[in-house]
Structures are given as C-alpha cells and as structure tokens.
Sequence to fold (384 residues):
Amino acid sequence: MNIKEAGFETRAIHVGQEPEAEYGSVMKPIYLTTTFAQKSPGVMPKYDYSRGGNPSRTSYEQCVASLESAKHGFAFSSGCAATSTVIQMLESGDHVIANDDMYGGTNRLFSRVMSKFGIEFSFVDLNDSSQLESAVKENTKLIWLESPTNPTLKIADIRKITDFAKSKGIITAVDNTFMSPYFQRPLELGADIVMHSATKYLNGHSDVVGGVLCTNSDDLAEKINFLVMSVGAVQSPFDSYMATRSLKTLAVRMRAHQENAQSVAEFLEGHNRVEKVLYPGLESHPQHELAKSQMHGFGGMITFFIKGGLAEARNFLESVQVFTLAESLGGVESLIEHPAIMTHASVPADQREALGISDTLIRISVGIEDKKDLIADLEQALGG
Ligand code: P1T
Fold:
C-alpha cells in the first residue's frame, strides 16, 4: 500500500515515521545533533547543519504536510515564527490584506513589527466582499486569513476568497490553527499556504511551542526554505519528535474535543447567566451553513458572553476548578481565558470594541476530560 494515499489516521501514524534502519526501532530516534559528518569538502550529504534540516524535523514536516494535503511542510519554533516567514517572503512596499479579527499576536506582528520594514497592512472584514475588493491595491501581494477567527469564531469563505485572490494574482495564506487539518484543509479549498500554531491542536499537550507552514507550490516552498536557512527560526529535533508523536493521536483528540465542545456549547446556550454563545456547530452561529460547507467538523473552541460586566466575568473565571485560567488552546486539558485582558490585550482598545471583544467575552478551549465534569464545573462557576 502507498502510505501517502492511505486514510488520515493511517498517515498521521506512518508518514515520515518508518522504523529506523539500523535496529528496526519502531519509534525513530531523536537526532539531537547540530551538524553532520561530511566525506569531502563541498560534497553535500543529505543533511549538513541542523538549521537547514534535521531528520527529526523532516519526519514531522512530512507527516504534517501529508495531513494538510500538501507537498511541502516546514516546522518553525513558534506559530509567530511561521507567520513571520510568510511576510518575509514579501518585499518592502508590498501590501497585505488581513482579517480585522484574528489572534492578537498576529495583529501585533503585522502592525508593530513587519510594518517597520515597509510592508503595508489593511485589516478588513473578509466576509464583506465589498470591503475586500476595495482594499486591493496595485501592490497587494498577500491575503492573510484566519478562519475561524480567534476569539470571535467568524468564518471566512475560503473558496470564495481564494478564487478572488487568484483572479488578481494575489497569494492567500490561511491560519488553520483552530481547526487542525482533521477538520479543515485550506489547500484543498484553494489556498496557497496553510499556517499553524502547532502549539495548539497539532501538538495538543501544551508542552511544545511550534509553528508550521505547508504548501503545494514548489516556488513558494523554495522561498520558504531559503528563509528557514537564512533566518533560522526552526523547530528543535526534540520538539519535532514531540509534535510527531502527538500527530499520531490528532484524529482521536479532535473527535473528542468536538464531542465535548458541542455538549458544552449547548449547555451554555441554555443557561440563564449566558448572554450569547458562539460555536460553529450551533445552528445559532451566523455562519453555521458556511462552516458545514468548508469544514469537516466544528472543533473545540467556544466563545460566550456572560451576563453582567467585568466583575461577573472575573468572578466566574476565578471560580472554575476543572478548567484552568490560562492563555493558549488546543491541549487535552480544558482552558479558559478573558481575551480583552489576556490574549488580545495587544489589540488596540477601539479595535477590540469594534470587533466585539468586550469585557464579558470569555473564550474556552474545551479539552477531552469527561464532559460531565466540564459542564458541572461551568455550572458551579456560573452559579444561579
Ligand atoms: O503562540 P504561537 O505558537 O507563536 O502561535 C501564534 C498564534 C497564531 N495563530 C493563532 C490562531 C493563534 O491562536 C496563535 C496563538 N494563540 C494563543 C496563544 C492564544 O491563546 O490565542
């Protein structure tokens, strides 16, 4: 059987992960080396120096690329490092259109770091075609989109946006962190590049910070590879091993995240202390139909508005016991946080307000604990 054509779960366990040749070790060794012996000066072996490439990283990159239906995969030391690499492919004077609503750190990277190097950014509501069309300029080279968005779970129509971008000769990159390739594969929907904060679902155990880029374009892959070598924000051999190990269980974890999230979302929607719940799997989500048409599931992230104000939100967040109050998401353990004060504090207050990231907005990353315990915990913390 050609393993590359096997099902998702099989590829997650086997692609790039053949037993090692010397002893038949089923798990590949971790290549904890910075450099590789050469036979003769200038006669290049497969690997020469671990910034450029390392066998542990290659295993991981091959596996994650296969899961994203991609030809090429690249592993970085963080999601932000992967995002930076996409922007570093551009030239000073180029223009980027991005979601107005996305992870606060990406917003900060674009507006406060990359903008210093002459790259221009416009932040628009990508679901509003007139806003998107009027944002395009002669120097627009990239549309950056996150879908679903962090934290308001807005869904961008990936097919429609990538078709539009292609008609204008613009590249599209999709941050697929919230869905993982198990629930959404942007390259199949027309995107040129897919990006992940592997810190989240890909690694899934809150013990590795990492990022990934995948593409089917040889041209883009060559540019990314050049930046990998030149900038060096690469994933270490040990972290590559950890993330490869985690990919083996991605499918089962994602199914469990989603089952729990659906139940938690329905519970919250029926609670009298909850104003509104945003979860793509609920029929009340404004883009539930779009979600169904481009995703294979709805994931484990929920956002809701608690009734009252900051005091009520704070009191609730201090009262949870099974959920942990912490930034990040996508781990097996349930996390809860307050985006306005925590993950999205770097987004200017007026922008946060315009996007609805209010003091009563609470974000949950639903883990894979027993859902009865999760619901009971939320119930006691919400009180009467
Ligand atoms: O943290 P890092 O691995 O560098 O990834 C950045 C990033 C990129 N894209 C999305 C959608 C993200 O959610 C993140 C990181 N997000 C959090 C830390 C958070 O709690 O939302």
Remarks:
- The mean pLDDT is 97.
- The first helix runs from residue 8 to 14.
- The pocket of P1T is lined by residues 78-80, 103, 105-106, 146, 150, 175, 177, 197, 199, 209, 211, 327-329, 343 (CB under 6 Å).
- The chain is about 35% helix and 15% strand.
